[in-house]
Specification:
CATH superfamily of the largest domain: NAD(P)-binding Rossmann-like Domain
Oligomer: single chain
Structural class: alpha/beta
Largest sheet: 6 strands, parallel
Order of helices and strands: EHEHEHEHEHEEHEHHEHHHHH
Number of strands: 9
CATH topology of the largest domain: Rossmann fold
Radius of gyration: 20 Å
Number of helices: 13
Strand order of the largest sheet: 3-2-1-4-5-6
Distance between the termini: 56 Å
CATH architecture of the largest domain: 3-Layer(aba) Sandwich
Helix content: 40-55%
Strand content: 5-15%
Length: about 290
């Protein structure tokens, strides 16, 4: 493992991946990077111009894979993960490790794990929570599935951009945990939207309300961090409605497959769909309160 630490590669320099890769490079002083748009790769590399950190930006996935033994991905969806893994797998050394931070279906994680094992490569599904702010602060929460020994080996990498790293069993366990995370967020935001709508209808002092209720049993991260901004019509905090819809579709498909009741979450997904149709898809998920404004 020690000889692999010097050949880490990161795929996907989007809103989450950009700061995650930055934390990783600053810690390990070396990183290979690849992004579909090389302009984004160049932008990311520019921040290290006056440093002694060894950065290599690649335009070609094959060359990237040949020079990386630990590959971290933070990309789009099931299809993009499948395409990327199939592109890099023939060029990876045996015992290489793929760490996937993309939120995907559990079935996809299990499929990729089996595919990689056939090539003697390890695959971990490691979705994250904490949003863009968590990524920028290096304070994400990571939920992992796959081989526990491999998970333990790469903890020092995950710690570069996260505050919590937990192992949830065999392949797919990380993605199932992320489903629970998204169910909780959606339902908390729905309750928060309904409560704040009531408060605004009675002209309650929202700041006083938030500062009071966060100290009691109704306290939550969403209340404390989004309560006032939701009432001030501020919805530019990263994780967008359209991304939540992608995740809730994954949750719904899994629930139908396993015959699990998520009726309230499905109702909230439908509300998000309507808001997206109204043109609010790029606003963050706390814009759920807009269901009462139109």
């Amino acid at each position: 493992m020690n000889n692999q630490i010097n050949s880490i590669g990161f795929i996907g320099l989007g809103r989450m991946g950009f700061p995650m890769a930055t934390h990783l490079a600053n810690k390990h002083k070396q990183l290979n990077v690849y992004n579909r748009s090389f302009d984004k790769t160049e932008l990311w590399i520019n921040q290290f111009k006056s440093t002694d950190i060894n950065i290599n930006g690649y335009k070609n996935l094959e060359e990237f894979a040949k020079n990386s033994n630990i590959i971290i991905m933070c990309i789009g969806n099931d299809d993009s993960v499948r395409d990327t893994v199939n592109s890099i797998l023939p060029h990876l050394n045996k015992n290489s490790i793929i760490i996937d931070h993309t939120t995907t279906s559990a079935n996809l994680a299990q499929e990729m794990n089996a595919l990689c094992l056939n090539s003697e490569v390890h695959f971990l599904d490691c979705p994250v929570s904490g949003g863009e702010i968590g990524a920028k602060n290096g304070a994400l929460t990571i939920m992992a599935g796959g081989n526990q020994d491999i998970f333990n080996q790469i903890l020092n990498i995950l710690e570069c951009y996260s505050k919590c790293q937990s192992y949830f069993g065999k392949s797919g366990g990380g993605q199932i945990t992320k489903m629970v995370n998204q169910i909780l967020i959606a339902n908390i935001l729905q309750g928060l939207s309904e409560g704040l709508n009531l408060a605004q209808n009675y002209n309650l002092d929202i700041n006083l309300l938030v500062n009071t209720l966060k100290m009691g049993a109704a306290g939550s991260w969403q209340l404390e961090n989004r309560g006032a901004t939701m009432c001030n019509n501020q919805f530019n905090f990263g994780f967008a409605i359209d991304l939540m819809l992608k995740d809730l579709n994954i949750v719904e498909e899994f629930a139908i497959q396993k015959n699990i009741n998520i009726k309230q979450t499905q109702n909230i997904k439908n509300i998000y769909q309507e808001l997206s149709k109204l043109g609010f898809g790029t606003l963050d998920t706390s814009a759920l309160i807009k269901q009462f404004k139109n």
